[in-house]
Amino acid sequence: MSQFNKEFIFGTATSSYQVEGGFNEGGRSLSIWDTFSRIPGKVFNGDTGDVAIDHYNRYKDDVQLIKELGVDSYRFSIAWPRIFPQEGVYNEEGMNFYKSLLVELLEAGIKPMVTLYHWDLPMWAYEKGGWINRDSVKWFLEFSEKCFIELDEYVDSWITHNEPWCSSFLSYHQGVHAPGHTNMEEGLKAAHHILLSHGEAVKLLKEKLQSTTPIGITLNLTPAYAATDSYNDRIAVNNADGYTNRWFLDPIFKGSYPLDMVNLFSNYVHDFDFIKPEDLKTISVDCDFFGINYYSRAIVEYAGNTNLLYNGAYSDYKKTAMGWDVSPREFKELIYRIRQDYTNLPIYITENGSAYNDVLEVDGSIHDQERTEYLEEHITAVRELNDEGMNVAGYFLWSLFDNFEWSFGYEKRFGIFYVDFETQQRFWKDSAKRYKEIVRTRTV
Ligand code: FCB
């Protein structure tokens, strides 16, 4: 049985709004998620991230748990409204929180991977148009520059954006995430400005600040498969892939948007002038690694009555509590394709994990057999990929803790540590124990 080499990075991941809480502490202003979660019907059970798992106040203990888990790295994100609570107004107290967290991690021997944007856009920016406004690039750069200047010395690697598909299409086109708009043109503009801000931030770190800290972007990629081999379903799979994957991969790695999708979108959007010719050069700036979040495959069928001509189709795969297919084989196929069509950069799996309905036993144990199998299967896939020379440099399990799962509130538990949301007590699930063993032995 082959082992992961010494350089391979095992980690876990969280994001600011999902774990921090302290929504009005330390000079933080409101983000779009504070507002959105208060709109009745947007989040399951009316849950909000006001308290979340109180990581803002418990971070020291949490870092000790990460240390006990034995992972090499921890991926977290910075809440923009802690750093710039108002436009142009810097909040040192907010920055100090992240400095303390970083120092704590470094003292525990854990490498910090830091995401700048994991969806908590400040309300002040939203009120000026949010990601639909091209000025968002400027605002994001001001935020990024401050983070780079203050934190670069502590950070092991930077991620500009987490899952632009979610912060643009899911948020501005489908309305499922904050700010909850349902307009395709807005979705496209948001996606473009987010990608542009990524390119500009990378240039800022490398050129202006002359930093050598590795930087990249994380995309959520969902390989799409056709329900049948009918001609119709082949159209469906093309469009699903274009909307979720190629619309982001192509500009980043090829410096162009896929024209089949431009044609399809042009049924709803009549002016693409928000894309300036020089933008694509910026978006395709050289990075040091590529981050992929992988959860599941998609299976789709033709649906002539929908905007993009496809819908999700029935699949007989075993499912997580999210209803997502457990699909480690398709995970491998995705990586082969990235290698073939897009890039040779080192790949980090910056998120992978599963939600299940966990039961906390009276003795404090949680026997999450299915999650344990899910992680074993996906880590095995990574090992096999590396045995085939695919250069996956690291794997970050989502998530370290049960937390605020966006529109699902606290209902869906992704953690390898169980959190009792009443008492804020953390418990080791069996999957955490298993992950600890995998990391220690570097074998699955
Ligand atoms: C990803 C998000 C992450 C978490 C997982 C389950 O899309 O990046 O915050 O919600 O899904």
Q: What features would you describe in this structure?
A:
The chain is of the alpha/beta class and 444 residues long. It has 15 helices and 13 strands. An 8-stranded parallel beta barrel has the order 1-2-3-4-5-7-10-11, surrounded by 5 helices. Strands 6-8-9 form a 3-stranded mixed beta sheet. A two-stranded antiparallel sheet has the order 12-13. α3 packs parallel to α5, α13 runs parallel beside α14 and α14 (369-387) packs parallel to α15. The termini are close together. Bound molecules: beta-D-fucopyranose. Beta-D-fucopyranose binds at residues 15, 18, 162-163, 166, 220, 293, 351, 398, 405-406, 414. The site of beta-D-fucopyranose has 12 residues, from loops.
Key traits:
alpha/beta; three-stranded mixed beta sheet; 444 residues; binds beta-D-fucopyranose; globular; 14% strand
